[in-house]
Amino acid sequence: MNFKIIVDSCCDLTDEIRNKFDISTAPLSIDIGDKHFVDDENLDREALLAEMRNHNQAPKTASPGPGRFLDLYKKYENIFVVTLSKELSATYQNAVLAKNMLVEESENKFIKVFNSFSASVGETMIAYKLGELIESGLKKGEIIEKTEEYIAGMQTLFVLDSLDNLIKAGRMGKLKGKIASFFNIKPVLGATPEGTITLVDKARGSKRAIRKLVDKIGEKGEKLEEKVLGIAHCNALEKAEYIKKQAAQKYNFRKIIIVETAGISTVYANEGGIVIAF
Hints:
Layout: E1 4-8, H1 15-21, E2 23-26, E3 29-32, E4 35-38, H2 45-54, E5 60-62, H3 66-73, E6 78-83, H4 91-105, E7 110-115, H5 121-135, H6 140-153, E8 156-159, H7 164-168, H8 174-182, E9 185-191, E10 197-204, H9 206-220, E11 228-233, H10 237-250, E12 255-260, H11 263-269, E13 274-277
Parallel strand pairs: 1-2, 1-6, 6-7, 11-12
Antiparallel strand pairs: 3-4, 3-5, 8-9, 8-13, 9-10, 11-13
Helix pairs in contact: 3-4, 5-6, 9-10
């Protein structure tokens, strides 16, 4: 049976991964002042970053409407969908709404929507897992079971070089954020089981925070020899390569993948941000 994988644009992909597993994307959008960005293959990420630096207000992001998903769903018969955590975006709800609308019209249509309980490279790792399960020839029920097990055990961690967007978006108090910035405190953040953001640790300085991030892999990871480590970066390839090197030395991942952040992940991570998932 042929299966199609659809993701939203917070799923950071390389061309290699997209082509290998034939992944299609429903784009979110971003508004900063009077500038509108569609998070698709034509996005100018440097222009997005420039607008973010030049505005005091947080960027406003919008999920793909049900129509975006419907257009994609109509092209395929058997579909797996991976979305942003439903605690962070309406994307999951819109993907499910589109599914319900279409399944009523076509009983033969199969669509399974997975809430990633994550974002960025967390979504990437789920899509990658789905691709491998499909390639292995498993039936849909087995693919769903193994993917849900993977999501339940997945860890997502990140270190932000800039707290600006967290402060602008109200996720961190201005005073607290300014104190952290003044003393060069870098938070190590992670995803909760419910798909929200939580403080995992903190360090003084970016280098120490990245080292703590690598250490957290050993503290939180299980059966790493069976897993792929995904690393997403926003104009921080040197950090990503350092994490890849350290993780390869300390742990036994079967594969390590580096991807660049697309538009939505860039809004969350900001310049210099790093996100890992495994």
